[in-house]
Structure formats: structure tokens, C-alpha cells
Amino acid sequence: MRIIVIGGVAAGMSAAARARRNIKDAEIVVFEQGDVVSFGACGLPYFAGGWFDYSSEMIARTPEKFRDSGIDVRLHQRVIGLHYAARKIRVKDLDTGSETDESFDQLLIATGASPVLPPFPGMNLKNIMTLTKLKDGEILKSALKDPAVKDIVVVEAGFIGIETVEACLHMGK
To answer: Is pLDDT above 90 for 136?
Structure first.
């Protein structure tokens, strides 16, 4: 059995690890377009707010650890097509630009969410940012260290939004 997981952050890697535990002889392949897998996005506000210094502390397991457990993790790979009846996906290597077709018996799409930016004028200004990826946390952390940045508006009231407010207060904003 060949199981393909599209998306290598929390849900995708959890599912791949569970599949490995439950289906010992399956070939499991994870396609992730970024360069990080298995990180705790819930830690982003605390990283940005200075509770710890290195974004790597949010990484639960490296791609190498997953590979050691028999999960083929492929980074910088974007799935650009799905032909479900043929049980194939089309994958683009973001480093080389080459494209391949990959077959599957089971498919899990765990690509996560994308931030929704309201269509307000000025949304492309410098200090408007989102907080979903490790790189976003690094950008926010840098902005919070800037003494010229004093007033901050957080538009979102879920856990990460509220924790981001807490992080901003922690940084004296």
C-alpha cells in the first residue's frame, strides 16, 4: 500500500506517523512545499514575544527523524494536480522546477489553512503581517524588537490572536 500525505506540518505529520504505527508495511510519502515539518504553530506568539530565542525549538521532529522511522519526507515539493480516478498526483519540485506523477492507494490532504486578508486599502504596507509559518514568527519577532514599533493591532481573536496580544504586551507594546 502506498499512502501519500500532502502537507507536512502538524496534521500531515501526525497522520503519517499514525499510519506508520498502524500499517507497518505501507510506503508513506509526505510532500511538503516548505522546508520545515512537524512544528507547533501554537508556539509562534511565544517565540515572537521573546519567551524563547530559537524558532527551531518549535520543531517537534526533523525530516530526518521521520525518514529514520520509514516515512519518506520530501521538502520543497508542491502538489499541483490531482487525478483521483487514476490515483495520481502531479508534483513540482520547487528547487528544480521538474514535475513528476506519483501514484497512491490512499491520499490525505493536510495542507492547513491560509490566512484571510481583508481587501482593505493598504494591506500591502510594510508592517501588516500574518502569523502561520515559522518565517512569519521570525518577522514578527524582529518587528517587536524594533523600538520604533509601539502600537500594534491584532485582528483575530482565536488562541493564537490572543496569545499574540499577550506577546506584544510582554514586549512592551
So the answer is: yes
